[in-house]
Each structure stands twice: as structure tokens, then as C-alpha cells.
Amino acid sequence: MPDVFVSKEKTKSSKPKSIITKPKGPERHNLPGHTHNPLAAFCYYPDYVKFVSEDPEEKVVLLLRRHPITNVKWILPAFLMVLAPSFFPVILPYDLLPAGFRIIFPLVWYLITSAFILEEFLSWFFHVNIVTDERIVEVDFFNLVSREITDANIDQIQDVTPRVVGAVRTFFNFGDVVIQTAAAVPLINFEAVPNPDKVARILRESRIEEEQEKLEGRVR
């Protein structure tokens, strides 16, 4: 005799479970870092991030830049360069120079200063390390006409080593993440990134999940 009454619990359990091949949000690792700030150095599941050679179904898990404290090495000289024209009358013999030169020289100086600041900022902003659900990507940005992109599949990762050396890096919690791979480039280095231990943990878990997908035949 067929069942007339079927409980909701039984009906739900009879449905096939959906297979989630990749994590859907930051709650899986319980890590802060999901942010909409375009200048963030640690972005976990960032929104609207695209890069060269990205596959249509590829999902960006991590976007990393060098820790903001590393910018101090060029921000301080830039600050001094901005203040330098105020001391030109003391350092240079302004009284012996033509009036036009007194105006042009500071303008040229500020133009050089602006170019220096722009180049250093772009070097920091576009020098990124990307972890997707399929691979790791290192973008070395040298200048506006020169860049180098290195990548390796997640399943090619052999070892992940976080390195935090020095009092400054320990205090601000940033360091290098050295990744040994079986790809054409055997060593990929994420330099001076925030939370290196968390980055290493995400990489290890991504590798384990990729291996599990291969065993279950769920690789795209």
C-alpha cells in the first residue's frame, strides 16, 4: 500500500544533494578580508576583479598586494621632494638666476615629483598576486610598458612556506609566501603580503580540494 502521508523531512532528504565544487564565501575559512576597498592589500573573494588570461568560469579567491607599510620607503622621499622647493631660495643662488628660471625650475621639479609618485604607486597597485579556484598567478609590474605574468595550476603546488622575518614584519603581520610548484617556473614568491599564514592555509586547502575533485571526477 503506498504511503499517503510523507513528512517534509523525508521529502527533503530524498532530493539529491547539490555538489559544491568550490567554496562560495569567506565563512568557509572564517577569515576577515572580504572588502570592497580597491586599495586593500588582502582581498578575500574580491568583487569585480578581472585579469589577463582569466578563464570565463574562473573565480578569484584571493587578491594580494604588498603590505601598505612597504610604501613608506617611497612615501617619505616623496614628501621631502614636495617640500624641497621651499628651501630652494636658501640652497640655490636665486638672486643670480633670471626671473623666468625661478618659476620654471620649481614647476619642473614638481613634475618630476609627480611622475615619481605615480610610478611608485602604480608599481604597488598593479604588482599583485592572485589565487583563483584553479591556479595561482603572480603579476610583476615593472612600469607602464613592462610586466611579467607567472602562473601555475593549483594541483601543481608541491609546498607552501610562509616566511616572516624581522621585527617590523612580525609587528605588522606580513611576510613572504614561497610556493614550490611542478610547473615550468618551479618557485613563485608572494612578496611582503599581509597574513602570510592565512594565505598559506588557503593555498593548502585549495590544493587538497583540487585533489579531492580529481578523485571524484569533478574537475572542469
From TrEMBL:
Sequence intervals crossing the membrane: 74-94, 100-118
Superkingdom of the organism of origin: Bacteria
Keyword set, alphabetical order: Membrane, Transmembrane, Transmembrane helix
Annotated region (Disordered), positions in chain: 1-33
Composition bias, Basic and acidic residues: 1-12
Stated name of the protein: DUF304 domain-containing protein
